[in-house]
Amino acid sequence: MEHIVIIGNGISGITAARHIRKCSDHRITVISGESDYFFSRTALMYVYMGHMKWDHLKPYEDWFWEKNRIELKKAWVEKINFEKKELIFSLGEPLKYDKLVIATGSVYNKFGWEGQDLKGVQGLVTKQDLIELEENTAHTKKAVIVGGGLIGVEMAEMLRTRKIEVTFLVREQAFWNNILPLPEAKMISKHIRSHGVDLRHNVEPDKILSDENGRVKAVTTKDGEEIECQLVGLCAGVKPNIDFLKDSNLETDRGILVNEYLETNIPDVYSIGDCAQQRTAVGLRNPVEAVWYTGRIMGETLAQTLTGTRTAYQPGNWFNSAKFFDIEYQTYGWVWPVPKAKEQHFHWQHESGLKAITISYNSESREFLGINTFGIRMRQEIFDLWLNENRKIDHVLANLKLANFDPEFYDRHEKEIFKSFKNNLQEA
Amino acid sequence: MSRIEHNMSLTGDAPKAINAQQKIATFLGISGLFILLLASFNINFPNKSLWLSISLISIFAGIVWFARASYSDKHPGIKNDGVWFKSMTSRGYLAWLAGIALTGFYVILYFYPEYIGLRAEGANTGLIALFDPLSKLLSGNPASQWFVYGTLYTIAILAFGVKFLWKYRHNRYEKIRTFSVMFFQTAFAFLIPEFMARLNGKGFSLPYYDLKNIWPLNYYNFEQYRVDDFISSGTIGIALLLFGIASIFIITPILTYKYGKRWYCSWVCGCGGLAETAGDPYRHLSDKSQFAWKVERWVVHSVLVFVVLMTTAVIYSYLGEDASKYWLTRDVFLIGVGVFLSLLFAGIWYFKREELEKDARYGAIGYLVITLSLIGFHYMSGSNLFLFNAETLRASYGFLIGAIFSGVIGTGFYPIFGNRVWCRFGCPMAAILGMQQRLFSKFRITTNGGQCISCGNCSTYCEMGIDVRAYAQKGQNIVRSSCVGCGICSAVCPRGVLKLENGSQKNRIDSEDAILGDNVDLLDLINQKSK
C-alpha cells in the first residue's frame, strides 16, 4: 500500500483522490490550507450575492471523506524535499509520501502596477479572497475592476448586487474580445452596461493611488484619468500557483511542466489542474488550462496511472461555458476571435441583443469547426458527435434543432438562423 | 438544521431595505389582513360585502404591487440576490414570526373554528360571517371555515402566482406552469365545487368535490357519506365516483408515464400550487442531506401504506356481507385489495427489481407481508380489520396526516423547513406518482455532458431536497421519485446543464460515472475499474 499525497483540494486533487479510492486501497492524504473541505470555487460569487451559503458550495457532505478513507489535512505546504520524499509545512511535522500529486491551482495575476499591494486591491480566486472582499466592500461605494475576463464580469455582477458603482477597465475594444469575435464581444459589452456597469474599452490602468492609511483611493489610467474608488478588483487572468516550488529541482515554466501522462521531471511526482503546464500542448489547447472540467479530467486520468494503468491526458473536443450577468455562453469546438486562415464565421444575432450564435467553419471544405452560443443552450453530446464526424456547416445548420437544449416552450430560432445563413451566402 | 454556521461571508450587508413602493404595498396588504383580524375579534362590520371586498382586494393588490416593485425595474433573469441575507427567507426573525402566525392559523382552522366564528346553530359570526356574502353569491350557502380557507388559499395562489410570473418572466416553462396552477386552483378547487353545490336539492346532493383532488391525497373521497351522496345523485354522481376511481388507476398512470409526476405536482395540484407560488421564496430551505432523503423514503411510503389500510378499512366497514344484494361484498373487496397489492408488488419485483435499492426492497416486502397477514389475521380471528376499527383509523389519519402533517407542519412551517415538506415527506399521492415516475415514465432531467461546474445552485434551489448536483457533476440523468418537475434547477443553472425532458426509456437511467469531454478510453477504463 502506497501513501499518495495530494497537495490541493480543488476539483483536480479531489477528483484524483476519489478515483484513486475507487480503484485501489492506497492511503490517500489531501492537503489544503485554504479550506477544510472541497468546495466549488466557481460558485464563490453566489455566496457573496446571497444565493447560497458556504455549505452549499460543498459537493460532498462532510462525512464522505472519512467513509471513503480520504484523509484531509489542513496545512500550507512551505517546501517539498523531493530527495527525502517529504513535505514541510508552515506548522507541524513533515509528512512522507510515496507518490506526490501537486494540484495547487491558480493565483490571480499582478502585473507590477504601482500600488497593486495596497489595502482594498485584490483578485478573486480563493476562499480567503472572498473573505477579504467581504471586508473590503463593507464600506465601498465605488470600485474599479481591471481586466475583462470571466472573473472580472463575475466580480462586476457581485458588486452590483451590493449597489456598488463599478467602473470596469478593459484593454480590448469590446469585452473579452481576445476570446470572443467582435460582434459577440460588443453584444456582451452592451449587456454589461445595461446592468449599470461603467464599462470602458481600450483603457489600461496606470497606477493605483493610496490614501494616507495605505488604502486605495483611486486608479489612474494610461490616458491620465483619475477614477475614485475604494476597491480595485484585479481580474486580469490567473497564473499557476507554484511560487513555493522556486529553487527546487522540479522543472517549471509558467506552470509545472508535465508530459502527457501528467508526470513531472521527478519520478513519483505528478501535477494536474491549473498549475500544470503541458510540455506539448494538446491540440489547439493552451498548455496551461485553468478550466474546471480539464482539472476534473486530469484528476480522473492521473488516478488511472496511479492505480496501475498508465493513461495519457486526452481531453477530447474543446468546450466551455460561462455566464455574463443574464446571458449564458457555451462553446463547442474552436471559434477564434479573429478567424484563422481558411476559417470563416457565420454570425447571427437576435433582435433582443440577448441571443446570438457564431459558427466557425472551413471556408474551403465547409467543415464545421466550432460554435459560440449566447442565450441559447445547446447539447454538448450532439456537437461532440458532429465534430468527431467532421460534419459540414450545412449539416449543422440543417439539424440545429437537434442540438437545442433550452427548457421546454422556449422560443426556437433555428429557422431564422438557417434563413440568415442562406441570405448571407447570397450576399457574399 | 441546527448545525453551527461556519460561514464567513454571510456577514455581508443585505441589499438595502425595501423601496418606497414596496413599503406602501406592504401597508396595503397588511391593512387587508388587519380587517380580517378585526373580524376574527368579532368586530361587526356594517356592510360585509364592502368590507370583505376591501380586505381581499387590498391583500391581492398589496402582494401584486410588492412584486411589481421588486422585479419590474430589473432585467429578466434569476432573482436570488440576497435570499440568504434576508430575515424572511433565511430563517430569521421575520421567518419565525410568519411561521408561528401561519401555524397558529392552521391550528385554529382545523381544531378551533369556533374562534373564527363558526356556529353549530344560528348564523356565523366573526371572520366566517364576513365571508358569508361571497359564499352566498357562489353556492347560495353561508360560509364555513373551509370556505374562508379556500378563498384565502386561492388569493394566495393567484397573487403570489403573479409575483412568480414576474420573477421568472424570462422562462416560459415556469410561466405556463404557473398559469396552469392558478387556473386549476381558481376553477377546479374553488369555483366549480361551489357551483356544484348550487345544483344540490331534493334527492340530489353531490358532495363537495374538487375533481383534481385525487385519492389518496383526497383521503376521504371514498368515505361512506360521500359514496352515498354520489350514488344517490344519479348518473352524474355515479360518473363522478367512477371518475374518482379512474383518476388514480387509469388517468394518473398514463399522464405520469408520458410527462412524469410534474403534470400533477407542479401543474395541477393545489398543495403544489401553493408551494410553487406563496412557498417559492422558501424553496432553498429544504434539507439536502442524504439522511433527509432516507427519512423521506421511509416516511412518505409509510403514509402511503397507512392511507391504503385506512381506506380499505373504511370501505370495508360500509360494505355488506350478502352477495345477492350487491356484488361488491366485504369478502370480494378485501380479497380484491389483497390480490391487487400482491400483483402490483409481483410486477414491480419481476420487471424492476434491479432498480430498487436495498431499503426499498426491505420496505416493500415488509409492508406487503404486514398488510397481507393483517388481512389473514382478520379472517382467522374475526377481530377488527387491521386491528383498529375503521373509524379510529380514519380519525387518526385525518388528525395526524390530514391536519397536522399537511396543514400545520406542511404549510405552517414553510418559512422554516421549506415549501415542500408535505409533498416530500407526507403526501401519499406523491409517493404513488413517484413510484411511477421512477419506474415507469419517460420523464427525466437530462444533464448536458461535462458542462457542470458543481456550483450547487440546482441543489440549493431544489424544493424537494434533491442533490441535483450529485448527478449533474457525474453527467448522469436525474431520475428521482420525488422530483416534481418544477424546472427551477434548470432555470438557476448558470451553465445550461439541466433540461427537463420526456424521452425514450432507453438510457434514461445512466448509472455510469462518466462524463462527456473525457476521452472514450478513459471512460471505459473508469467504468471497468469501478465495477
Describe the overall structure:
The complex is a heterodimer of chains A (428) and B (531). By secondary structure, chain A is of the alpha/beta class. Helix content of chain A is 25%, strand content 27%. Chain A folds into three domains: 3-107 and 239-306, FAD/NAD(P)-binding domain (3-Layer(bba) Sandwich), CATH 3.50.50; 121-236, 3-Layer(bba) Sandwich (FAD/NAD(P)-binding domain), CATH 3.50.50.60; 319-427, Enolase-like, domain 1, CATH 3.30.390. Chain A has helices spanning 11-23, 44-48, 64-67, 127-136, 150-161, 182-194, 292-306, 380-388, 393-398, 400-403, 414-427; strands at 3-7, 27-32, 70-74, 77-81, 86-89, 95-96, 99-102, 106-108, 121-122, 142-146, 165-169, 198-200, 205-210, 216-221, 226-228, 231-234, 238-240, 256-258, 269-271, 276-278, 319-324, 327-333, 343-349, 356-362, 368-374. With 531 residues, chain B is mainly α. Helices cover 60% and strands 2% of the residues of chain B. Chain B is built from 22 helices and two strands. Chain B has a two-stranded antiparallel sheet. Residues 1-11 of chain B have low confidence and may be disordered. At the A-B interface, α1, α2, α4, α7 and β21 of A face α7, α19, α21, β2 and α22 of B.
